[in-house]
Amino acid sequence: MPATAPVAPAGGKLRMVEDDGDEESAPRPSGLGVRPFREPGPEEFSIELRPPARYAINYAAELNHEQLEAVTSEPGPMLVIAGAGSGKTRTLTYRVAWLIENQVRPDAILLLTFTNKAAREMLERVTALLPLDAGALWGGTFHSFGLRLLRMHGQALGFPKNIAVLDDEDSTKLLGAALKEEVEKDFADKGGLSNALAKEKMKLLPKPALAANLLSLAVNKRLSIKEILKERHDYLVPHAPLLERAQARYRAAKFAAGAVDFDDLLELPLRLFAEHPELRVRYQRKFQHILVDEFQDTNTVQAELIRVLAQKHGRLMVVGDDAQSIYSWRGANFRNILNFPETFAGAKVVRITTNYRSTPPILDLANAAIAPNTEQFPKELRSAFSIELPPGFEASDNDGGGGARLTYAKPAVVRAQDALEQAKFVVQRVSEMIEDEGVEPSEIAVLYRSHFHVREVERGLREMKVPVELTSGLPFFQQAHIKDVLAFLRLAHNPGDEIAFMRVAGMLDGVGEKTAARLWADLRSGTPFASAKPPAKAARDWLQLGETLRQIAELGEESPASPQIHIALEAMYDDYMKATFDDYRERYADLMRLRADPATVSDLLTQAALEASTRRESRDKPRVRLSTIHQAKGLEWQAVFVLNLAEGLFPSNRTIQEGGLPALEEERRLFYVAVTRARQSLYLCWPQYWIAPDTGLQQMERSQFIEDVAPKLYQSWKLKSDKDMPYEPW
């Protein structure tokens, strides 16, 4: 991918262009006539702002007092805690404009974000505020910044000037080859044991895609491979030494090819600065002011890069919200934002708490929900909305009564009998909003902790022809692991199902599309299953597949699907899933949910086919959003439903049993993010009964996240069978 830098033509409009790498490349080698490097002192980095006689922007009129304090503070280390809906982007944009008005050159400002889109938006807003050329300002993601540095200076580390960046597919292939070579070398070193044994060992290792994800996490969290395996997949810990050797081989292969992967775009700039201090000082001098967006999402490597760049002058402003730190599972380090005042001595902390999104009752609940967390910057969001009451009206928390009243609706806590009743409520209430209240479907969201939580709601909305957009992944029956297991059932009961055969055969080691097609042709020509000739490495699994299909077929298509799914899992698919998917536990939970369905095989396959057909809907229609909370961060809707707020579901069992206090507090932050997505209406739903994968039907307790909130802050609803009034306060 090309490195991009914002460039402004005449008139100040920004465009993104490829970095041409014209700046000085590798540092000159040391030798005769070259003065030795001298580390400059902090005093050599001091600068003074030069305020204009008159500012072009009336900052006091365009910002609230909290934003104004952040924007106009004297340069130095500053942490801006920007609460949900408080105008974070506006604050960053005006800070850049204020610096430029104070005679800071645009090319002395570095703005780091998590998406190039966010960087472009901020730069465009700056040029809209100030009629000047801001094109020299460096703005972009951490990765694009790293690539730009490596394109200019990578030769100092032995890389070519036209350094290549491997995408995920290329990285996975290269790592897969390294794994294979290490296994073969391992056996050769032990006396040249058979190639077949080496292939058997390869089956026990994580698939290349999973291995790549684990190695990436180790890099970004600055942990050993063994530590990551213990944290994520403890059954793979015995393979840690082999994975370490494969990682070293993979790195050597990248270097030989003059290529880097995405992790290198963060790691190598740090190495560049460590090995070439003159370059480090050059960029410390260049970037006199550093601004970082979404600081709570930074990982350990990103935080270190920021620290190195800002350590001499300390003119660093980071913006984030500790209460929205929810990405530890992908490497984000919550301690980066929490420890900022200790990392940068004398740091100023500014809180921006005026919320321009949600009604006061929603914010009251949000504040109460996050309060129990022990590790946080305490704050209380306040709504920017005020009630202008006409004559004869009064503000009240209660409905009904004698006089005319103007109220904001409190959030509703909705108790359902089970997941099905919960889904019926959501579907009916969504339909009422759209049909009777004129709410646009795109202004409604259903949010949940895990993807499998939404299955019943998704099915119900599709049956009612409500247009939906599922952003948390594929629909339940379209997910790879669900389709894989159903393929076993389809093939067992219909040996002529070529599509199912190709899917199942493709899971066998060494069986690609061409080999699967040959095996299929042999079977269709009358060759008995046991007499077919798969590749040698797949011979044993081929026979196991035949036996598995026979056992499933014996149970019959009109019998319950659950025991047949169990056979497929135990015989073959569970091992395949462990080695293939990094989110094995979540996918296993999905399959347990599938097993809990009492349907026959015939009914289950019919249901899967029908749900797939309902996907053919117009893409330009406004649609109700179905999303995990993680994917909903940064978004907002008029009405939000949050599902399955019961102990063991949200917070999850794994969090309660294994995670300890840090994991529980992150889960509470996730709940806080869900609540603060809503502008006007919020429904917090929970089922009294749940069919668990391992224990079957169990009674649930309401989530501690609701129990932490005073009852006066919400309405309590129970569901009724009455069609005209399916819910009422209780």
Which oligomerization state do the chains in this entry correspond to? single chain
Strand order of the largest sheet: 17-18-16-19-20-15-23-24
In whole angstroms, the N-to-C terminal distance is 57 Å
Using DSSP, what is the number of strands? Answer: 24
Report the structural category.
alpha/beta
Low-confidence segments: 1-26, 28-34, 387-406, 613-618
Rounded to an integer in angstroms, the radius of gyration calculated over CA atoms is 29 Å
Overall description:
The chain is an alpha/beta fold and 730 residues long. It folds into four domains: 59-158 and 265-352, 3-Layer(aba) Sandwich (Rossmann fold), CATH 3.40.50.300; 164-257, no CATH class; 412-472 and 621-718, Rossmann fold (3-Layer(aba) Sandwich); 476-611, PCRA, domain 4 (Orthogonal Bundle). The chain is 45% helix and 13% strand. It contains 28 helices and 24 strands. The strands form seven sheets. It has an eight-stranded mixed sheet. A hairpin with a 7-residue loop joins strand 23 and strand 24 (727-729). Helix 6 (168-189) crosses helix 10. The two termini are 57 Å apart. Residues 1-26, 28-34, 387-406 and 613-618 have low confidence and may be disordered.
